[in-house]
Amino acid sequence: MMAPTFFESRNVVKDLAPLKAHRREWKGVHLRDLFRDDPGRAERYSIQAGDWFLDYSKNLVTERTLQLLHDLTRRARLPEAIAAMFKGERINLTENRAVLHVALRAPETADFRMDGVPLTPQVHAVLRRMKAFAEAVRSGEWKGHTGRPIRAVINIGIGGSDLGPAMATEALRAFADRRLTVRFVSNVDATHFVETVRDLNPEETLFIVASKTFTTQETMTNAETARAWALDSLKDPAAVARHFVAVSTNADRVAAFGIDTHNMFEFWDWVGGRYSLCSAIGLPLMIAIGPEHFQDMLNGFHLMDRHFAEAPIESNLPITLALLGVWYGACWDAHTHAVLPYDQYLARLPAYLQQADMESNGKSVDARGRPVRWQTGPILWGEPGTNGQHAFYQLLHQGTKLVPCDFIAFCRPHHPIGDHHAKLLANCFAQTEALAFGKTAEEVRAEGTQGRLVRHRVFPGNRPTNTLLAPELTPSTLGQLIAIYEHKIFTQGIIWNILSFDQWGVELGKKLAGRILPELLDPTADARGHDTSTNQLIRRYREWSKPLH
Ligand code: G6Q
What we know:
6-stranded mixed sheet, 5-stranded parallel sheet, 13 strands, binds glucose-6-phosphate
């Protein structure tokens, strides 16, 4: 395993030391003071990239902090790492793979290579097949086995083969053809399949089986169940060819499942599951919103890829977000990060980013396998505003934990009804104002509160937020937004000297489930070989799962 130089000879503890020293001098500095003393702060601490405007002025930073953070990128050789990713070097060291999701959204003329082989012709060949297929389904030209047009498309996949298209299909619902129903089944719990298809007609239903490996237990189980459900009414096994297509890197397995490989849309091992929305994994989204909108989304991604690769570090939006996260993790004991979209269409964005961030940077050994002695990826979580305000914001304002937050909003609504949108955005801006500046005891008293109650009504403030604002939620601004977070995650991984593109932490549970499964299926099988707790749970399951009659 040959590590590129930016992973080698790093001493992250030493690299973070100047920031930690700076933090010790911070004492008592409040955002109230920083804003009062510097009328240019908001403007100076803002970045425009593509259609996105980032105001990061409500963060606990000074010029000195930013200077130290920018130094850190040089120590981490970030520019070299970015170049290595774009050049197709195998920076996913433990899987010996390149990381080239940026090639998926580049124009055909772009020069991306893998071991010298140009990639964009392959990428665009698959895109053209996807576009033709999506058009055929949308226009009704693609017929089901009995000659009826398709009215429902069900994606069967999990993790990276589910969350991206599921999130984006919801996000871009305003651009979708409402005559088509597009749904997602991921959980191995049969409830998910049953509830998803219960109102559908198999004659008019198309399944997309999406799995990079085509071996994933959940997806294969759901795909078998879907095939049985379809054949139960269509009767003829030849119907599978009209009702099942596959998205995979594994043609042999696709064929073994019984799907004609002519109906397979390919992607490649240099596309990580959680970075695969722009590959054929995006097929259900393309069918929902149409090829042109899908292309707009790809262009949005690409625009932000260029910004990330080309903008100076000081005005680089994803890098700035990444550095702020590093600062709070290393020096402010922040363990979580909230993503708060003020847009109902982005309801699934936190779940999507949870995987992107936590599966990538939830690591505790560095690139060379040595235990880390610094914080790596935060716990990412969130819910759309304003709902969250009536639930967990209490803790954000007055709790004992520092939770840096990203507020995300759009200026033009898709549904300009009454003053809904002004109210939505008023709440969004008000929250960042309240979190930053709080309310002092004097201010509470001035409003007429006296005695002990004063303490309960004080807002300490000084709680950091970013605000990301775009004119409108479109395929392009969504693509740009996702790319911002992808590159933020990459940057943090490089600074922490961890490997962001593998996910060994998901293996053990899968393996143990494989051992327990036969012990649950066969109640006579010996199931005493685990620890006493697991043995006991299996025994209890066997008792309680017996049919009642
Ligand atoms: C993503 C992960 C993981 C993966 C799923 C599904 O980066 O690797 O979430 O996407 O386990 O895998 P398959 O696509 O192979 O079914």
